[in-house]
Amino acid sequence: MRMFKRGSRQSAITQVRASGLIGKSQYVVFEDGVVVIETPKGVRRYDDLQELVSQAKSLSSPNSPPFLRLV
């Protein structure tokens, strides 16, 4: 697994709330709400779950079922 860089707060220690695999992708959710997803095509960083969900909704069409479900 690649090390996830923490942008502007490199010196701060942030606890991991959840992490795991979805297919070939890895994800990490930090306690401060930041979500980092590593896919074979690259690493994406979201400031919070709302940003991730809104981007996922904009990518899906009304006729297709949701591909990501957050509980």
Provide tags for this entry.
alpha+beta, 4-stranded antiparallel beta sheet, 4 strands, globular
Question: Could you give a short description of this structure?
Answer:
15% of the residues lie in helices and 32% in strands. With 71 residues, it is α+β, with helices and mostly antiparallel strands. A four-stranded antiparallel β-sheet has the order 1-2-3-4.
Please write out the topology:
Layout: E1 16-22, E2 25-30, E3 35-39, E4 42-46, H1 49-59
Q: What does this entry look like structurally?
A:
- The protein has about 70 residues and is of the alpha+beta class.
- The chain has a domain at about 10-60.
- The protein is about 15% helix and about 30% strand.
- The chain has one helix at about 50-60; strands spanning about 15-20, 25-30, 35-40, 40-45.
- A 4-stranded antiparallel beta sheet has the order 1-2-3-4.
- The longest helix has 11 residues, at about 50-60.
- It is globular, with a radius of gyration of 13 Å.
- The two termini are about 25 Å apart.
- The mean pLDDT is about 75.
